[in-house]
Design brief:
By secondary structure, the protein is mainly alpha-helical. The protein folds into three domains: 52 residues; 43 residues; 53 residues. Helices cover 74% and strands 0% of the residues. The longest helix is centred in the C-terminal third of the chain and has 16 residues.
Length: 162
């Protein structure tokens, strides 16, 4: 097949950046649009065709991206549903995909909150107990955990150690 020069150049660029990092469809579209502004030979149709080709090849799949992102968040840098959903929304993933991904994945926020707090307790020891609890609440809240999980974790940690 003989492709237009703009399409070919754009596809090579898309594959090159994708080899370094995974992208959502929205992120890839923004990257390609930015790349095309500097090159006159690339048209809007080229961007749409490259996105379509990347989907056909299986490189762009927002549904799989959501599942993988959630499991990585739980495993590598634990955080709550709220923060995960916000991050995915920021990446341009549709709300329905985010909600279905979060429903399919079991996220035990009570366990995450307790584990995060037990690792952080040593840093809070130099403060009075009331201030330690406030720091614990703020820390866990910043991780996107729900209030129930936060209160349970703080209560559990300070009932046994404080």
């Amino acid at each position: 097949m003989n492709f237009p020069e703009g399409y070919d150049k754009l596809l090579r660029y898309a594959l090159r950046i994708f080899s370094k990092k995974r992208y959502t469809m929205s992120e890839m579209e923004k990257k390609l649009a930015k790349y095309s502004t500097k090159r006159a030979e690339i048209s809007e149709d080229d961007i749409k065709n490259v996105i379509r080709r990347m989907v056909d090849l299986g490189y762009l799949n927002d549904e799989q991206f959501v599942k993988d992102y959630i499991s990585e968040c739980i495993r590598l840098r634990p955080r709550g549903r709220v923060l995960i959903a916000r991050d995915l929304k920021f990446k341009g993933v549709k709300k329905e995909l985010i909600e279905s991904g979060l429903e399919e994945t079991e996220i035990d926020e009570n366990k995450i909150a307790y584990e995060l707090l037990t690792k952080r307790l040593k840093r809070f020891k130099k403060y009075p107990v009331q201030e330690q609890k406030m720091k614990a609440y703020r820390f866990l809240y910043s991780r996107g955990l729900n209030r129930d999980a936060i209160y349970k974790a703080v209560e559990r940690c300070y009932d046994r150690s404080g």
